[in-house]
């Protein structure tokens, strides 16, 4: 059972998980305010009903004019109007300039803007005159109607995660509401008689439950609605009861701990008794014990209890399932090939995910303690090196780097 050849490869596990998740894909969409849609996933394409910018306007404070009215630098034109942003001017009289401010609508007839740094305002009747100290090129400093978004084009495709910048883009085309998939409902519990909640005194033999915080936050970052079922004792009956309760109203049941093969590990038999267990060992390090299956209509994923293992297995195996449920592309962010500034002479027979960080030389430094219980490594690290089974790494080799930010927030 511990022979790596009998373990499921991570890619095989992901393929099976994706097939299971595809059958559970959320079918209900809902309309939410675009002001309040951070992290949600678009259920339909968002098409623009307008051009952005809606009209030609100036990118600079300065003077709008006809380029042909100025043969050489130093020419003087009377100022015929003033156009602040948000105001509409009139057609530009030939042989004059319009004082204009960034975002101001280009008056009809003008074909160039000269920035105010290249102009000298001169006294005179009315709005005075301006000396233009540079020869303008037609089109300069003009932001064209539709240069950002053309009316009718899709600005955000279905399946897009709504990042802050995506919400800004939705707002720029005037979308007050967005059609998104409902949030996946995830029931979360931790197993372990040793677990104590932060805020409680730590008895002998106890440790604080960190996975509950980590996993709940990862689920929230992935756009999920989390039902927290707390800590479940290391007993088969209690684990079965928790699974039954969790299955009632969730798309996914996520657990941590109790998933190995010891007598205190009850998750596997509990899933087998209440539903169906598909697999429980994946050839990855950290994270070998990783159970998945189904209870009732809910998918179940049982993560290992070691805090680094549960964090990494979430990123690599649970996050893709959550993406599939929401109609997103499940693929991980593509790895970057970066230089290892460390040696890894004794690789594992399983595919490994080491905690690394950018150094000042533009390479990757390795966290000195890669143990799966050392949570400090996850905060220190910028990312993971995805190292193939049995692969020795020598200083200077190119390795596959996965950014933690991209894994957490994608
Ligand atoms: P298990 O997978 O239950 O055998 O747990 C493996 C290791 O992870 C043990 O040292 C546990 O004490 C620890 N562990 C399990 N669950 C948690 C948790 N929720 N928070 C922190 N450590 C945990
Ligand atoms: Mg345990």
Ligands present: adenosine monophosphate, magnesium ion
What is the CA-CA span between the terminal residues? 34 Å
**Count of runs of 4 or more consecutive helical residues:** 8
Mean pLDDT: 95
Query: Measured on Cα atoms, how large is the radius of gyration?
Result: 30 Å
Q: So what's the overall shape?
A: elongated
- Count of discrete domains: 4
Uncertain regions spanning at least 5 consecutive residues: 1-5
Strand order, main sheet: write it out.
Answer: 7-4-6-5-9-8
By CATH's scheme, which homologous superfamily of the largest domain applies? MoaB/Mog-like domain
The largest sheet is: 6 strands, mixed
Number of strands: 26
Judged by helices, strands and strand pairing, the structural class is alpha+beta
Write a structural description.
This protein has 410 residues and is an alpha+beta fold. The protein folds into four domains: 4-26 and 183-325, MoaB/Mog-like domain (Molybdenum Cofactor Biosythetic Enzyme, Chain A); 29-52 and 149-181, Molybdopterin biosynthesis moea protein, domain 2, CATH 3.90.105.10; 57-143, Molybdopterin biosynthesis moea protein, domain 3 (Molybdopterin biosynthesis moeA protein, domain 3), CATH 2.170.190; 336-405, Beta Barrel (Beta-clip), CATH 2.40.340.10. It has eight helices and 26 strands. Strands 7-4-6-5-9-8 form a six-stranded mixed beta sheet, with no helix packed on it. A six-stranded mixed beta sheet has the order 16-13-17-21-20-18, with helices on both faces. Strands 19, 22, 23, 24, 25 and 26 form a six-stranded mixed beta sheet that branches. Helix 1 crosses helix 6 (307-325) and helix 4 packs across helix 5 (267-274). The longest helix is centred in the C-terminal third of the chain and has 19 residues, at 307-325. The two termini are 34 Å apart.
């Amino acid at each position: 059972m511990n022979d790596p050849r009998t373990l499921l490869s991570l890619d095989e596990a992901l393929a099976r998980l994706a097939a299971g998740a595809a059958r559970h894909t959320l079918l209900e969409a809902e309309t939410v305010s675009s002001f309040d849609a951070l992290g949600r996933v678009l259920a339909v394409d968002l098409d623009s009903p307008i051009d952005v910018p809606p009209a030609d306007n100036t990118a600079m404070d300065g003077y709008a004019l006809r380029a042909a009215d100025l043969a050489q630098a130093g020419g003087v034109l009377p100022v015929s109007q003033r156009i602040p942003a948000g105001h509409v001017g009139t057609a530009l009289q030939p042989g004059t300039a319009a004082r204009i401010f960034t975002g101001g609508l280009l008056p009809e007839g003008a074909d160039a803007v000269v920035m105010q740094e290249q102009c000298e305002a001169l006294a005179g009747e009315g709005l005075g005159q301006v000396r233009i100290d540079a020869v303008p090129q037609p089109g300069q400093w003009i932001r064209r109607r539709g240069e950002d978004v053309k009316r009718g084009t899709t600005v955000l495709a279905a399946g897009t995660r709504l990042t802050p910048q995506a919400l800004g883009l939705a707002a720029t085309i005037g979308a007050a509401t967005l059609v998104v998939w409902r949030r996946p409902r995830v029931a979360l519990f931790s197993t372990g008689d040793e677990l104590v909640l932060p805020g409680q005194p730590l008895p002998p033999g106890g440790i604080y439950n960190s996975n509950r915080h980590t996993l709940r936050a990862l689920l929230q970052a992935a756009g999920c609605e989390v039902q927290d079922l707390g800590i479940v004792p290391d007993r088969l009956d209690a684990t079965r009861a928790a699974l039954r309760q969790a299955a009632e109203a969730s798309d996914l049941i996520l657990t941590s701990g109790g998933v190995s093969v010891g007598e205190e590990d009850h998750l596997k038999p509990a899933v087998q008794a209440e539903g169906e267990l598909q697999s429980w060992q994946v050839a990855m390090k950290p994270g070998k014990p990783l159970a998945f299956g189904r209870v009732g209509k809910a998918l179940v994923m049982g993560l290992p209890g070691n805090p680094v293992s549960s964090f990494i297995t979430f990123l690599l195996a649970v996050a893709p399932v959550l993406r599939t449920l929401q109609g997103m592309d499940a693929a991980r962010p593509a790895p970057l090939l970066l230089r290892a500034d460390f040696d890894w002479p004794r690789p594992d027979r399983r595919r490994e995910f080491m905690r690394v960080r950018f150094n000042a030389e533009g390479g990757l430094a390795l966290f000195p303690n890669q143990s799966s219980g050392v949570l400090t490594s996850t905060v220190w690290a910028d990312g993971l090196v995805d190292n193939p089974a049995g692969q020795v790494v020598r200083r200077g080799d190119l390795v596959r780097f996965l950014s933690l930010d991209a894994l957490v927030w994608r």
